[in-house]
Specification:
The protein is an alpha/beta fold and 301 residues long. It has twelve helices and eight strands. The chain has an eight-stranded mixed beta sheet with strand order 1-2-4-3-5-6-7-8, with helices on both faces.
Length: 301
């Protein structure tokens, strides 16, 4: 639960492109910035409790945006926006620029990871610290069974038949499973049913199913960039906290351990008895780990 003395604030900002970004904030805009980057199939809603809690505990200005195709961000039909990770990253960069943010710490998860790493390739000095909660940048981080049909999709012709094979990934059962699977019984009550219910409702908006398939197809382009992502980690030696739900079958623990190859400076690897959406089941544990990490690397306010 969020700290009662500090609540988050909801905002919309219209970019020069016409895209209207929804985002949540807490803390002082004059404080150092920590950006929380959501994953599939969620939005900044997954950080609704973490945003005010981290603002209270760290003294940072916490920002959590919804990427195009997710949450309450609005992309005008007239833009004919192409849903690729290149474009999501460009939109994210425009969002930061509109808020005059040029240096920040980042919390990455799932889809948020490649967006941040792509941004870092163009802005190699922008990231002051990196918290990766099941945010992958290594081949060994993929759960083989989950990703097998998606890998087949990447090498397909992206035909209607190819796309239909992955339709089950947008069903209520799979959406709920991403939250529930791997969560120990002792923590299941921490997962609010509105999380996966909201995700599913938003994915069922007209046209959104095709957006999700477009991004799944394009995810393979991130894998091609992994050597560059890893080179940035080696060259920047950005401090990294890899805090992982060890029971996640989507991005498995080997993805956390792999950071050790490239981050030879400040690196912490921690495992939680949690699944994919560990921030839902282990909110306080993650928040406390972030506080300790930021204090250790000298960026705690």
């Amino acid at each position: 639960m969020a700290h009662p003395s500090l609540q988050s604030t909801n905002h919309f900002i219209t970019l020069s492109s016409g895209i209207e970004i929804f985002y949540r904030t807490a803390g002082s805009p004059t404080a150092p910035v920590l950006v929380l980057m959501h994953g599939f199939p969620s939005s900044s809603h997954q950080y609704r409790n973490l945003v005010p809690l981290l603002a209270h505990l760290t003294g940072h200005y916490i920002i959590a945006p919804d990427f195009p195709g997710y949450g309450f961000t609005v992309v005008p039909d007239s833009l004919k926006y192409s849903y690729t990770f290149t474009n999501l990253t460009s939109t994210f960069a425009s969002f930061l620029s509109a808020l005059n943010i040029h240096k920040f710490a980042a919390y990455i998860f799932d889809y948020g990871a490649p967006i941040l790493f792509r941004y870092a390739l163009d802005h190699p000095r922008a990231i002051t610290a990196l918290i990766s909660q099941n945010g992958n940048a290594y081949d060994e981080g993929f759960g083989a069974e989950f990703w097998a049909p998606i890998r087949e999709f990447w090498i397909s012709a992206n035909s209607a038949e190819d796309r239909s094979k992955l339709a089950s990934l947008a069903t209520y059962a799979v959406t709920k499973g991403q939250y529930i699977n791997g969560t120990p019984p002792s923590h299941l009550n921490n997962i609010a049913p509105e999380t996966y219910t909201l995700d599913q409702a938003l994915m069922e908006r007209p046209g959104n199913g095709d957006i999700q398939l477009d991004l799944l197809f394009d995810y393979g382009s991130n894998v091609e960039l992994y050597p560059k992502f890893q080179a940035w980690l080696r060259e920047s030696q950005v401090p990294v906290l890899a805090i992982w739900g060890k029971n996640d079958v989507i991005f498995v623990p080997a993805g956390a351990e792999a950071f050790k190859r490239d981050v030879t400076g400040k690196l912490e690897v921690k495992f939680l008895d949690a699944g994919h959406f560990a921030v839902e089941s282990h909110l306080r544990e993650i928040a406390d780990a972030i506080v300790g990490f930021l204090r250790e690397v000298g960026v705690l306010v």
